[in-house]
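[job 4471] stage=fold_predict status=RUNNING
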Amino acid sequence: MRLDTSDTIKVAVVKMSDGNPGAVVALMQMMIRGNKYGEVHGLRRLCILDECEIYGSKVWLLWKDVCNFDGERFDKMIDGGKKAILSEVKSNGGGYLLREFGLGDTECDAR
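[job 4471] inference complete, writing structure tokens
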């Protein structure tokens, strides 16, 4: 895990994005949407991604290829945790995303 309780939002987003500009956009928009309900929602989602070890290009691929830039779908998927994320990758991502996430079809079926 990369995040620390002393991280500011800016530091947390930089850590989670791995310098990927698409990931920065996805995470910042997630934080903005989360702030509608209080900052804790966006921070909780960052923690879920950190626990699932989803960083950088993987964040971007989830936002772009799995969720088609749909912020509510992205947030709902993350709120569901690792099982929901893997399910969305399998259902909507195709083979290259399964490989990017280190999953084969049978491995993903088992989860």
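[job 4471] summary: The radius of gyration is 13 Å.
[job 4471] exit 0
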